[in-house]
Specification:
It contains four helices and eight strands. With 121 residues, the protein is of the alpha+beta class. The strands form two sheets. The chain has a five-stranded antiparallel beta sheet with strand order 1-2-8-7-4. The protein has a three-stranded antiparallel beta sheet with strand order 3-5-6. It is globular. The N and C termini lie close together (12 Å).
């Protein structure tokens, strides 16, 4: 499964909290490892910033927006299975300080994402 279009971002000012969606974690199965970038790393929208491994597959995770990583979710290092139980809440991957907040306008909203997932099924 390619995770392109299966990342989410929750915007708080000029900071985006990013991770993979519940749909993505469900499709991947039991998550056994999450590889995250370092604080201070910079990414362009669409760049791979890490990966997630499950018992089924390994997939890259892509930055939905451009910016600088200001925080990573260190709890995923010891407990990657959090992604399966709380993908869109406690198991966020990174916080990214956005270099261009207007990029958010190019992303799918929740309704468009649900339609996207229905088309993939």
């Amino acid at each position: 499964m390619s995770l392109v279009a299966h990342e989410y971002i929750q915007v708080e000012g000029n900071v985006g909290v990013c991770g993979i969606t519940d749909f993505a974690q469900s499709a991947l199965g039991d998550i056994v490892f999450v590889d995250l970038p370092a604080v201070g790393d910079e990414f362009e929208a669409g760049d791979s910033f890490g990966s997630v491994e499950s018992v089924k597959a390994a997939s890259d995770v892509y930055a939905p927006v451009s910016g600088t990583i200001i925080e990573i979710n260190e709890s995923l290092e010891d407990s990657p299975e959090l992604v399966n139980s709380s993908a869109e809440d406690d198991a966020w991957f990174v916080k990214i300080e956005m270099s261009d907040t207007s990029e958010v306008n190019e992303l799918m909203d929740e309704t468009a994402y649900e339609e996207h997932c229905e088309n993939e099924a």
